[in-house]
Amino acid sequence: MTATSRNRISRTRAHAKPPDRRARSKHGTRGPAVAELIASSLEEEIVLGRRHPRERLIEQDLCRQFNTHRADVRLAFFALENKGIIERIPNRGAMVRDLTPREVTEIYAVREELEVMAVRTLPFPVARRDVKRLEAIQREHGAAVASSDLLNVFHRNLDFHRTLYGLCDNKCLIETIEQLAQKVYGIRSYASADPAALDRARRDHIGILAALRNANRDELITLTRLHLEPSPQAYIRAYQRRFGDGNAMLTAPEKR
Predict the structure, then answer these.
(1) Which one of 97, 190, 206, 255 has the fewest beta carbons within 10 angstroms of its own beta carbon?
(2) What is the spatial order of strands in the sheet that 56-57 belongs to?
């Protein structure tokens, strides 16, 4: 190659435009944003009972649905698997996680103790601004229950309890409670299908707020325990009807 040719190539490279990282591929926007959208959509479908335990999640179908490629779908699967919401099985692919009655019972037994620990250690009296924030969330939750808006019921319930347990100011405890709650997102729909269970949750929240205002820790602890009962009980009954797992533990966590 002559010196003139080398100089021409150097000038061409110097003036070449870098690739536009914002450009869309022929399959649509790529990257974590789409993976997050897919994960969020699947999570909501599982929470609302539109996807059931052991139901397969087909990569190709999701690629078409979200106009994207398999890498985005797999990133979404990875995020949901980390939360314990789905599982990936070699040579079978991804599916909605199937929790046995024993697993549900064990998770809720641990959740109960951790959530009681949070309300036992949160400082009294609770600041008025914190009570008002919880009251605002509960009004939204109550409105969602009244209108049978199950997605908003789910999210406002999460907001209420995250705000409540956040008052204990123990980051490790708060993170562990959140991780265990995520593992059982898929069973929430079984209790949410029952209007009486939704109304009970609404009334539990109101009772929790009264206990906070009155600095009644014993009542707060009792309500925290009782509030966890409907979801595992409803799921275990449905699981037994559907799968007939007679060898599994079929009782909800023992109440102390």
Answers:
(1) 255
(2) 56-57, 93-96, 86-89
| Res 238: pLDDT | 87
pTM for the complete prediction? 0.78
In angstroms, rounded to a whole number, what is the distance separating the alpha carbons of residues 84 and 71? 20
- 231 is written with which tokens? 């979801």
102, 114, 204: which is closest to 157 by C-alpha? 204
Distance CA 108, CA 226 (A): 12
* Domains in the chain: ranges and CATH: 27-96 (1.10.10.10), 101-243 (1.20.120.530)
**pLDDT tens sequence across 68-88:** 999 999 999 999 999 889 999
Each residue's pLDDT tens digit, 135-168: 999 999 999 999 999 999 999 999 999 999 999 9
Q: Which two tokens stand for residue 237?
A: 């009954």
Q: Which DSSP helix (H) or strand (E) runs through 21?
A: none
Would you state the torsion angle of the CA atoms of residues 159, 162, 166, 167, taken in this order, to the nearest 10 degrees? 60
pLDDT for 200 equals: 95
Q: Give the number of other CB atoms < 10 A from CB of residue 103.
A: 16
Q: What's the half-sphere exposure (Cβ side, CA atoms, 13 Å) at 76?
A: 28
User: In the block, which residue shows the tokens 């969020």?
Assistant: 40
- Closest CA relative to residue 132, chosen from 167, 94, 174, 87: 167
87: enclosing H helix or E strand: strand 86-89
CA distance 34 to 72: 6
